[in-house]
Specification:
This protein is an alpha+beta fold. It folds into two domains: 128 residues, CBS-domain (Roll), CATH 3.10.580.10; 127 residues, CBS-domain, CATH 3.10.580.10. The strands form four sheets. A three-stranded mixed sheet has the order 3-4-5. A hairpin with a 2-residue loop joins strand 4 and strand 5. Helix 3 runs antiparallel to helix 4. The longest helix is centred in the N-terminal third of the chain and has 12 residues.
Length: 264
Amino acid sequence: MVTARELATSPVITARPDESLFKAIKAMTLGWFRHLPVLDGSSIVGILTSRDVIGAIVRACARTEDMGEAASVLSRPISEFMSPPPPTVGPADTLEDVAARMRGAGVGAVLLVVGGDLGGIITERDLVKKAPWSEVDARVSDVMTTGVRTLRPEDTVLVAASGMASGGFRRYPVVGGNDRVLGVLTARDVIKLAASGEKPCRLRMRVKVSQVMSSPPVVIEPEAPVSRAAALMASHDVGCLPVVKRGRLTGIVTESDLLRVLGV
């Protein structure tokens, strides 16, 4: 039985609520993680997620006439953008307990608390890597999401980020002619772009998707078992796989989709 202590990443990189959003973005891109717990002293007061950051980036870059506004948004404290603290778990809680807590709260991470202190963080990716997939009899077609929103390679990153912010998702397949998958644009790609370079944020966000997307994409067929999808995600360190049949996009499978099939 896998416990929360075994699942958790520790030590945890954290931030203070008065630190700037731009400093947090830089920290998130160094080793890439989507969740940054925010502590005031030893108290957990919130968590900054990639979704929070994408929303802030869109807000900072949307006003084309005002470069100063973009700089102002990114220099504001994390406390203005962070989400409420996520659920917590104890070291003896099981993988199934952790997955149920995540799903019940509709979040992608929980915090491990040991003796009243922050002892680690557990994300959907941690669960996917450790879940007993050999015991699961399901195929990708059983859990994948269909009717997927897509991008074209000539679309701008700002268009993609705006869609992520309004739609509440983190990944876009990028397709060319005949719905052939050329790559995937993720929140990671958007945030890394926002944190890089000397140009103002609003100019960086207007580059074409084709310049920053992850390519070639790691794909999977709908008939493949979910254990194969989990193995591909773990080995390639990705959170989604475009689902392709006869060379054409038919759906997408994410970490959240896989965890639903565990029945928790």
